[in-house]
Give the backbone structure.
Amino acid sequence: MKILIVTVLFCMIFAFRLPVLYNSTVLALLFLIFLFILNINICIKNFKKVISNTFTVKLLLVIFFVHFVSILPTIIHSQYDFTYFNKFFGLNISLITTILFFVVFYNYFDRENLIETYIVFIFLMQSIIIMMAYANQNVLNFIQIFQADNAMEQANPEYYEGLRGLSLSTEMFFGLSCGYGLAILLYFKLYIKTKRFSGLLLMLLSISIFFVGRTVFIGFILALLYMFLCKKKFFMDKQLYKIIFLTIFFAFATYVFMPELWSKIYNASFDLDADSQTGRSLSVLFSYFDVDLDEKLILFGDGLYTNSDGSYYMHTDSGYLREIYYGGIFYCFFILSSQIFIFRSNNTRDSKVFNLIIIFYMLILEIKGEVFFTNKIILMMILLLSLNNLKFKKGNPYD
């Protein structure tokens, strides 16, 4: 059963391309429907527990309201650019699949941290796939069958030294790196709860910084902050120094014994802009905010999400700016607060702190790109964690 759960979860979250079925999330949904029918009596009982819960009812109402509000700015401005609304509508399959996954496997989540363990494990699997694809061209060729047609073009192999575009996932860059950052946060949460630590597993997760994006590093930093807030005698924890030692050892060993790989990692991850001495992507990010916005645009937006050529309106990647350009600052606040509603803790201090850390993490990520209600990986992970937290909350609301 564990293998089945991990396989379905991997297909759900990474949504790699499949012929006929579009992507693996659709495959997971169809398989979950099959399992639901196969165990219909138990699943109907679980479905009633989950769907009749106050949180689930409010969640569905919030999703419906977000769909409704997301279409208003472009209609009010008479622009009729429905690309933003279509993006939200596409999330419905992810949400339905996530809830159905929890319903079908409800009885197997009999330990509080089991769902976190499964999530971390599928990211470890993804890391192994990435390294195999990097090491072996035949593996990479096979992986590319399940990637988008323009995946390698987006991976920019010349600039990134062939380190990007190696994952078995639809999201291979910013979206995937956001997921990896959250997976690292979950790993530290599991360590605090279970007292079990593996330097090898942490390295497998952390190596994604070089293969999917530097955004992962933000998750790592916030994971240490969470550990500082929730772990007694933080500076006396030997695992903290093990992390520092492993980081230094890995960097030194790569530099000495694999100088070519070190050069690729440096160029892809730490390449500096010659003029500003800041990362090139950071320089581009700063340029997005170097614009003059009039009060009308800030308050009400322009009702546009894309240009006529399909590029993003104002050619910005920043999530905050895309939402402000589309519907104004109040619309931006509405989207942020709507997703924050999904967060649920199990009433313990650690769980509440962890949720606050994730919200802070997402607010930081939104500066670089869209995360709130648009990053499917993050959305599904948070929904699974919230549904699971309610199950182990004192006075289980599903009972």
